[in-house]
């Protein structure tokens, strides 16, 4: 017996299947994911113009609510919102309200009073964007910019866009995700996206201490040995390793980790010759990846950053579109009711 | 017992309906006469006596009052979450006539002074019997022994660790040896703190997908094994509270076979829900121990059916709304459950997972045996009973829930089992 609808779709989709929040890739079908990628493709062209703006979000207010610090993700969200002509407010809640003891609910009530149209949320606790989507006034779109270990759906989608640009397809691809899968919201969203888009195999390569329990149930195979894991790969995604991981007895040392799971040219040579190298950043050179590889010809790491803006523009405009459609629908409903 | 709103302690006759009898069977009610707070007569004698009031229980089940081995009344100290008056009324609404009060109050019930405070509150403002459980260590910190002899003299029926884990086996061993000296039952919720660490969800599929911090099964099973071995060595009477793992049930059965004095309970929500309840980040189902897998749920149900698990408890944990209004990891654990226990149980009866006599035994006979108390509705025993209509329905809502906590497992939907009357010592505690 389950207590509630386990699919998050009643929350993030409108009645006719349009995006109105973007919380997780769970439950989103291939068609919608492809739609996001196609929309992003059309925005890439905007970034190449001399005047990089479209008026899709003109007059809208987007609030970047970052409860956890971030430079890159926040700046790409900010740029994306500005290229869509929105007004942007950046709030680092980290250092303001919550440190004064205000609860998240109270912070939200105050922000709602500022008549915002969209919250871009990053939070250290899994499920925080769900909680916010459930508790704020309808009409405010919530975009998940990373929550705890749960999900980082825009990062995963920009990775998918990068893969599609280089490989042209997902069918038949063998993709490996290497490193700290346990703590990674990025890996969870990537595994989900790759499965939905039809990749042939998703492999996770890590020691047992950095893998969550029953990780195979997410839709991947497990490989402890990196040399074996690199075989036949089309894409290798390296994850960032936090320095704190030595303290909880998850790893003995950075050196041993680099020796076993760090990506160098020698290991990369075991993959297919056209294998691309990705990393969600920020990179720890010499911990999970060698500089020669990070800056090498197979690396598409900087490509990912550029695509990040286009994906965020796509998701923001689609979610706002869903909210508008819903508002109109409700208006029509209530008018029909009155008549 | 006092504090009920109407005084009808003179006499009362209950006719009709089905009686959960002294043999643990459901039989036609031969008639019950309640006089001076006791069951004065059963059978034809009861029908003939001239009485002030009669209750027609046709279509209903008459059961000995339910006994809850684990309930949080939040008094003293947590008035914003509930108090003895509100939570014992909620208990009566749930058909419970006796509740064991968890030692996790503020201050912790680790001294006779706090025990007296709870008993006094129960005598003046409570509507059901309240049996305090003392803290086994001072402040439930797990370091120093509490005054167990003093707690027993003050009226504690057992000593326990509330929902706090145990981190030191040497202290645990001494706690057991000391409790055994005074013939005190120890009630332990088994959780190895080092293994549970910062977790708050079952370490399984759902936690992996949602990125929640897991509490592995071994956090419980390692603690169960340690406690069973220590109980065997010290000879203490051990009661394991709120089991959540199938493996724990196996170990329990095995220990019983070897002659270890051990009993156990499970919370009703563990028999109904699994880790899937967290799938939408629903913070109500943030409970401790966490809801585990479907196979664990099946094993716990089998444990109840086979009598390996003696009792079903509410593990009632009322909260103010702020405690649950946050992202799931930041919320406080626990359900406001005592009013829904019977309804959830009847759901299991309806789905064929539990027989009605098994359900009622686990709410009456089983927990009474753990406490060494009488339980059957027989001549001369206290008139603690409840009458419910298993075919009637109610909808949990802010207006129907009596508890100060509104985070009930089911909310706003129709549930089976309408409580008609709860008598405690012959007085009406719920109607």
From TrEMBL, chain A:
N-terminal signal peptide: none
Membrane-traversing stretches: none
InterPro entries assigned to the protein according to its UniProt record, in alphabetical order: Asp/Orn_carbamoyltranf_P-bd, Asp/Orn_carbamoylTrfase, Asp/Orn_carbamoylTrfase_sf, Asp_carbamoyltransf, Asp_carbamoyltransf_Asp/Orn-bd
Pathway it works in: Pyrimidine metabolism; UMP biosynthesis via de novo pathway; (S)-dihydroorotate from bicarbonate: step 2/3
Aspartate/ornithine carbamoyltransferase carbamoyl-P binding domain: residues covered: 20-165
A GO BP annotation: amino acid metabolic process
Binding site for L-aspartate: 100, 185, 240
Zinc-finger recorded as keyword: no
Catalyses which reaction(s): carbamoyl phosphate + L-aspartate = N-carbamoyl-L-aspartate + phosphate + H(+)
Entries under Pfam families matching the protein: OTCace, OTCace_N
Binding site for carbamoyl phosphate: 72-73, 122, 152, 155, 281-282
Family under the similarity heading: Belongs to the aspartate/ornithine carbamoyltransferase superfamily. ATCase family.
Subunit structure: Heterododecamer (2C3:3R2) of six catalytic PyrB chains organized as two trimers (C3), and six regulatory PyrI chains organized as three dimers (R2).
Role according to the record: Catalyzes the condensation of carbamoyl phosphate and aspartate to form carbamoyl aspartate and inorganic phosphate, the committed step in the de novo pyrimidine nucleotide biosynthesis pathway.
Name of the protein this chain belongs to: Aspartate carbamoyltransferase
Origin species: Marinobacter excellens LAMA 842
């Amino acid at each position: 017996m389950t207590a509630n609808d386990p699919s998050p779709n009643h929350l993030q989709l409108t009645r006719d299947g349009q995006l109105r929040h973007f919380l997780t890739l769970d439950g989103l079908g291939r068609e919608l994911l492809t739609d996001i990628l196609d929309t992003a493709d059309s925005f890439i062209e905007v970034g190449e113009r001399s005047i990089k703006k479209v008026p899709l979000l003109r007059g809208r207010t987007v609030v970047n609510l970052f409860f956890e610090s971030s430079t890159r993700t926040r700046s790409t969200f900010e740029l994306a919102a500005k290229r869509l002509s929105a007004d942007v407010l950046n709030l680092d809640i980290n250092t303001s309200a919550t440190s004064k003891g205000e609860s998240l609910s109270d912070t939200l009530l105050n922000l709602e009073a500022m008549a915002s149209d969209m919250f871009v949320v990053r939070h250290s606790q899994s499920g925080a964007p769900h909680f916010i989507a459930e508790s704020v006034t309808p009409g405010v779109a919530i975009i998940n910019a990373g929550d705890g270990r749960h999900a980082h759906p825009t990062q995963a989608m920009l990775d998918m866009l990068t893969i599609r640009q280089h490989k042209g397809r997902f069918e038949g691809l063998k993709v490996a995700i290497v490193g700290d899968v346990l703590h990674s919201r990025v890996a969870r969203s990537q595994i989900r996206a790759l499965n939905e888009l039809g990749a042939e195999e998703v492999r996770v390569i890590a020691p047992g201490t950095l893998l969550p329990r029953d990780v195979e149930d997410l839709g991947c195979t497990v490989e402890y040995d990196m040399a074996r894991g690199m075989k036949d790969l089309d894409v290798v995604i390296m994850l960032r390793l936090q320095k704190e991981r030595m303290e909880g007895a998850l790893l003995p040392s950075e050196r041993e980790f680099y020796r076993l799971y760090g990506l160098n040219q020698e290991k990369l040579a075991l993959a297919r010759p056209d294998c691309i190298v990705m990393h969600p950043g920020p990179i720890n050179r010499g911990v999970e990846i060698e500089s020669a590889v990070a800056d090498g010809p197979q690396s598409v790491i900087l490509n990912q950053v550029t695509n990040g803006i286009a994906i965020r523009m796509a998701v923001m405009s689609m979610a706002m579109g869903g909210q508008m459609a819903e508002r109109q629908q409700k208006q029509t409903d209530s008018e029909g009711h009155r008549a | 017992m006092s504090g009920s709103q109407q005084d009808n302690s003179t006499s009362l006759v209950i006719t009709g309906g089905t009686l959960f009898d002294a043999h643990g069977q459901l039989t036609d009610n031969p008639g019950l006469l309640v006089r001076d707070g006791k069951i004065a007569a059963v059978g034809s004698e009861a029908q003939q006596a001239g009485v002030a009031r009669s209750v027609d229980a046709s279509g209903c089940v008459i059961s000995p009052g339910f006994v809850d081995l684990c309930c949080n009344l939040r008094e003293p100290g947590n008035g914003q979450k509930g108090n003895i008056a509100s939570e014992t009324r909620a208990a009566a609404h749930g058909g419970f006539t006796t509740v064991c009060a968890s030692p996790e109050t503020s201050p912790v019930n680790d001294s006779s002074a706090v025990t007296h405070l709870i008993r006094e509150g129960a005598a003046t403002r409570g509507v059901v019997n309240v049996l305090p459980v003392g803290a086994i260590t001072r402040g439930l910190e797990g370091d120093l022994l509490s005054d167990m002899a003093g707690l027993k003299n003050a009226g504690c029926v057992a000593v326990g660790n509330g929902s706090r884990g145990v981190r030191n086996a040497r202290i645990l061993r001494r706690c057991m040896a000391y409790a055994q000296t005074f013939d005190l039952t120890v009630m332990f919720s088994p959780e190895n703190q080092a293994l549970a660490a910062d977790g708050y969800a079952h370490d399984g599929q759902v936690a992996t997908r949602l990125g929640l911090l897991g509490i592995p099964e071994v956090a419980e099973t390692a603690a169960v094994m340690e406690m069973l071995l220590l109980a065997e060595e010290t000879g203490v009477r051990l009661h394991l509270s709120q089991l959540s793992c199938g493996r724990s049930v196996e170990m329990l059965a095995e220990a019983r076979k070897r002659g270890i004095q051990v009993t156990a309970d499970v919370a009703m929500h563990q028999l109904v829900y699994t880790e899937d309840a967290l799938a939408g980040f629903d913070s109500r189902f943030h409970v401790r121990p966490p809801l585990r897998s479907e196979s664990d749920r099946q094993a716990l149900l089998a444990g109840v059916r086979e009598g390996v698990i003696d009792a079903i408890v509410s593990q009632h944990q009322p909260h103010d709304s702020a405690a649950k209004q946050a992202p799931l990891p930041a919320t406080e654990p626990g359900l406001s459950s005592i009013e829904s226990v019977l309804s959830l149980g009847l759901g299991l009866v309806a789905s064929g997972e539990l027989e009605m006599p098994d359900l009622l035994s686990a709410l009456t006979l089983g927990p009474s045996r753990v406490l060494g108390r009488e339980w059957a509705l027989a001549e001369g025993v206290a008139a603690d009973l409840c009458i419910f209509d298993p075919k009637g329905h109610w909808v949990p809502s802010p207006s129907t829930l009596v508890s100060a906590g509104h985070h009930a497992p089911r909310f706003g939907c129709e549930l089976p089992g309408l409580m008609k009357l709860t008598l405690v010592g012959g007085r009406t505690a719920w109607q």
